Amino acid sequence: MRKLISIIVMAGFLMVIFPLAAMAGAQEVVSLGADLTPQQEREILDFFGVDKNDVKIIKVTNQEMRQYLSGLVPEKQLGTTAYSSAHITLVSKGHGISVKTYNIAWVTKEMYANVMVTAGIEDADVVVTAPFQVSGASALTGITKAFEQASGKKLDEDAKKTANEELVVTIDLGEEIGQEQAADFMRDVKEEVVKKKVKNPDDIIEVIKRIADEHNIELTDAQIQRIMELMQKISRLDLNLNKISKQLENINKSVDDIKKAVKDNQGILEKIANSLQNFFNWIKDKIRGQA
């Protein structure tokens, strides 16, 4: 009996200790915009659910953002301040990338996930926010810097610059055709270029045009040229299609679930509308019959 009690106590002890050990081993870093007020910093840390004494905190300046966005974004959008903040938590290998956004106007979680893969980020849960509505274009600088701190891995500078350019190109395209469609299209083009190792400009243009047709997207010559130049840079990076697919698996699953839900709801709404129409037609027939 004593032996049995000892085993039960030990099992309970391990059940408590193992989760605590896992939590203690979780590598997480918060990047804060350097121009946040002390009050805004407290609010954002509360939003992330972390204590400043228990998590690594770094600051990201406007100058650091300019390093990657200058020449890609109009000067007035770059501004002189930095408010976007991010919370990065490293997760188990193979988990992939998960992104949540709040108060981010232009960039969807799919866009962030797509470009994070280009930058070399993997297996991370990411939350991006700001104390008020911001475009979100500059947040990638904080995300990459926080990931480097959490992982101890220095990301390739060319990859980071290309990822920022990819984000801006996707944002601009999203203003023309919609954010979700732009993210899906850019992801598919990138995957095709990486999968088939397409490097020749003319061949890349063929890929862009074909996938644009598949997505029912009309692109201008200027847009095609801009995407082609971006894809040339992506083709020079050490990207692996299997890794891209694995990292984006959770993001793509959630998008597919949303699309299915919308489609299912449309079907239900259509049935309701048809039933109402049949009811009204029946009323009309009854009225005519009594006339």
Overall pLDDT score: 84
Beta-strand content estimate: 5-15%
Low-confidence stretches: 3-25, 254-266
Record the strand order, biggest sheet: 2-1-3-5-4
Helix content: 55-70%
Q: How many helices in DSSP terms?
A: 12
**Number of domain modules:** 2
Using only C-alpha atoms, the radius of gyration works out to 24 Å
- N-to-C SSE string, H for helix and E for strand: HEHEHHEEHEHHHHHHH
Signal peptide: 1-24
Organism: Syntrophaceticus schinkii
Keywords: Coiled coil, Signal
Coiled coil: 227-261
Could you describe the 3D structure shown?
Helices cover 64% and strands 10% of the residues. The protein contains twelve helices and five strands. The protein has a five-stranded mixed sheet, with helices on both faces. Helix 2 links the parallel strand 1 and strand 2 (56-60). Helix 8 (179-195) packs across helix 9. The radius of gyration is 24 Å and the shape is globular.
Structural descriptors:
single chain; five-stranded mixed β-sheet; 291 residues; disordered N terminus; 12 helices; alpha/beta; 2 domains
Strand and helix layout:
Blueprint: H1 2-25, E1 28-33, H2 38-48, E2 56-60, H3 62-69, H4 75-78, E3 85-90, E4 97-101, H5 109-119, E5 124-129, H6 139-151, H7 157-177, H8 179-195, H9 201-214, H10 221-235, H11 241-247, H12 249-290
Parallel strand pairs: 1-2, 4-5
Antiparallel strand pairs: 1-3, 3-5
Helix pairs in contact: 5-7, 7-8, 7-10, 8-9, 9-10
Protein name: DUF1002 domain-containing protein
Pfam families: DUF1002
InterPro entries: DUF1002 (IPR009343)
